């Protein structure tokens, strides 16, 4: 499956199948969340949250790809990500794009 964040693939003809998406709500271990609160005092990267969001983007991408495969897609164009805080220590990540089938 070709995954790109451009709106078309030069030199390829394809049929648009529609919007596909994948979503996940991810949280961190309570102990790591507690330790992260100390990091906000001194500043710097909160690696636990960085790792959480990297993992969440991967899960959301995999789910979006599965959604596209179910439609018989060969590629997903114009991929975008969105995230939002659901509660303290938990975030929702959504991956979405346009599924296409090559002619």
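Sequence proposed for the structure above (103 residues):
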């Amino acid at each position: 499956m070709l995954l790109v964040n451009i709106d078309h693939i030069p030199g390829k003809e394809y049929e648009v199948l529609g919007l596909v998406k994948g979503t996940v709500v991810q949280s961190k271990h309570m102990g790591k969340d507690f330790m992260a609160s100390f990091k906000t005092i001194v500043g710097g990267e909160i690696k636990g949250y960085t790792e959480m969001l990297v993992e969440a983007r991967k899960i959301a991408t995999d789910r979006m790809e599965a959604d596209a495969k179910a439609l018989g897609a060969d590629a997903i164009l114009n991929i975008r990500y969105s995230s939002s805080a659901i509660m303290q220590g938990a975030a929702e990540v959504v991956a979405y794009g346009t599924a296409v089938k090559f002619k």
